[in-house]
Write a structure and sequence with these properties.
184 residues; mainly alpha; Endonuclease III, domain 1; two-stranded parallel sheet; 54% helix; globular
Amino acid sequence: MAYHDLEWGVAVHDDRALFEMLVLEGAQAGLSWITILRRRENYRQAFAGFDPAVVARYDERRIRRLLGDPGIVRNRAKVEATVANAKVTLAIQEECGSLAQLLWGFVDGQPIVNHRRRQSDVPAESERSRRMSRELRRRGMSFVGPTICYAFMQAVGMVNDHVTACFRWQQVQHGRAESSSCGS
């Protein structure tokens, strides 16, 4: 409840926080979100506060240590994807100026405000999340399928999918960012 009430759907423009949410959403694949939230602080410790410049330098020895860490999901593909995605994040920052510029470009720099009446009306993916997924995969990221990208977009406020009766629906509507055409 605290995650929903304080964080979910709030616009995030900070690259490190965006990288964190990409990692956590990817780690969640096949698991419940609460499983990941309970391990969030462990992930922050294991992955250097989600500093992509540090994570990109993780070597095989470091990956083996992480696979022995009970505080994170010990899935080799997910851990290796985090390191690879950090490298891609650095390349995106170099090309686009920031990860935020690329990602927020998929929503033209401002949140999409949906008017869903019931949770069952919320889709698992969208055309924009499919485009984001294709672009991130084209650049070499993994664990960024269209469903993961849509959950990410909801989490970081690119899409407001709070139902209209929820007190947060009105509160999270104003998270604008500069528009970008970098790959989106």
